[in-house]
Amino acid sequence: MLAKSTAAKSKKQVATHDVSLASALPWIGPALVLIALVVIWPVIELVRISFTDISAAGSLLDFNGLTNYRELLANPDIYPVARRTILWVFGIVFFTVILSLPTAQLINQNFPGRKYVRWALIFPWAASVVMTSMIWTWILDAYSGELNLTLTQLGLISEPVDWVNNPGSSFYFLMAVAVFVSIPFTSFVLLAGLQSIPNDIIEAASVDGASNWQIYRQIKFPLLRNALLIATIINLINVFNSFPIIWIMTRGGPGYDTDTTTTLAYKLAFIESNMGQSTALGVFNFIVIMMIVGLYLRVTKATRTEI
Amino acid sequence: MKNLKAKKFTPKKVATMAGAYFLAWFFVYPYINMFLTSVRSHDELYATPSTHLPQVWQWRNYIDVWSHAPIASFLKSSLIVAICATILVLLVSLPAAYFLARYKFKLRGAFLLLVLATQMFSPTALIIGIFREVDFFKLLDSYIALIVLNAGFNLAFSIWLLAGFFSSIPTEIEEAALIDGCTRIQALRKITIPIALPGVVTAIIFTFVAAWNEFTIALTIISSVDKKPLPVGLTQFIGQYDIAWEYLFTSTIIAIIPVVILFISIEKYLVGGLTAGSVK
Question: Which is nearest to A101 in space by CA: A165, A28, A20, A190?
Answer without folding.
Answer: A190
